[in-house]
Amino acid sequence: MQITWIAPGESLPDPALAWGPDAPVPGLLAAGGELGVERLLEAYGNAIFPWFSDNQPILWWSPDPRMVLEVARFQLHRSLRKTLEKFRRQDGCEVRINHDFGAVIRACAAAPRAGQSGTWIVPDMVEAYIGLHQAGHAHSVETWIDGRLAGGLYCVAIGRAVFGESMFARQPDASKIALAALVSFCRRHAMPMIDCQQNTTHLASLGAREMPRSAFISHVTRARKQQGPAWHFDPLYWDELLLARPSPLT
Which residues are in coiled coils (predicted)? Predict the structure, then answer.
């Protein structure tokens, strides 16, 4: 099978041209190009994302199906609920958004991953997403405990379309707290879905499920045209999770 190579400034291919489930690497769409802000906005706005390792060209992906977390279906397990309730009322515990994006993405790059000896968040990716953050389209959700960054995640947002990227934890449950905060934020601001890119058991346990790429593209097309919210976290947003009735997995 051949891969489409793109030159800097050349448009990315139609996501429908990505390699299918029987290909050696399902979801691979193209290689090459660059990682500037405009390129990343083009990619995410068309349900495409970059993912590559050191010593590889930039690789562009659009898997089918797509793993997504519909925030209304987030599974707030009893243990996490207790953790959030304690976190919310404890002095020195807070969620911050975009307080230190650079620290968060570098911590995600350094976090060990089961079954992986390296990271896909290579220096070029760090630089690119810091640029996207400075342009207002990449955000960090941060768990702070006693004045220290304990964990967090970063994501991309175009309008009301949200794309989860990576998370890390330096203390138990710190990344889960950040994810729960992002879900609360999205619920409050009528942002119905967080892209998770690919299927994992952990994400499925939290309520994420696979969606046909065509349906995901339709969602992104609508959501990216809507006015996005101001990215800051109010502790009142916890009510979106802690006061809501549990949503069954269906």
Answer: none
